[in-house]
Design goal:
Blueprint: H1 8-25, H2 28-45, H3 50-64, H4 72-80, H5 85-108, H6 110-120
């Protein structure tokens, strides 16, 4: 990744896209265990705080957890709401866009995710 560009913004964007795709097909814990050791040295060499990267990773994979084809939370929501999976997917689309916008804010404005850790020391 570092051979592609030195831009922190572009590297974080590539990591976000990768994690969103992986989150669609893999369970969250497995994806963290596989990808964190690979991506962690990349982001720390760019100066990204490890806590900030962890938050980025968890939010990405959480978004992937509600998107098809895996989308385990979609199946749970359809069962709890006693509706079809199609209705749940149609209903989640506006929230999905909002979650991606929030992800971009968390990624590119580190003060949002680092406020509490900085406050606590």
């Amino acid at each position: 990744m570092l051979s592609l560009t030195d831009s922190v913004i572009l590297i974080l964007l590539l990591i976000n896209v990768l994690l969103l795709i992986v989150g669609c097909f893999m369970e969250t814990l497995c994806a963290i265990m596989i990808l964190a050791p690979i991506l962690f040295p990349v982001v720390t060499s760019l100066g990204v705080d490890p806590i900030h990267f962890g938050i980025i990773m968890v939010v990405n994979l959480a978004i992937g957890f509600i998107t098809p084809p895996l989308g385990v939370n979609l199946f749970v929501a359809s069962r709890v709401g006693e509706t079809t999976l199609d209705n749940v997917i149609k209903g989640i689309i506006p929230f999905l866009f909002l979650m991606i916008a929030t992800l971009l804010l968390i990624t590119y404005v580190p003060a949002i995710s680092m406020f509490l850790p900085n406050l606590l020391g």
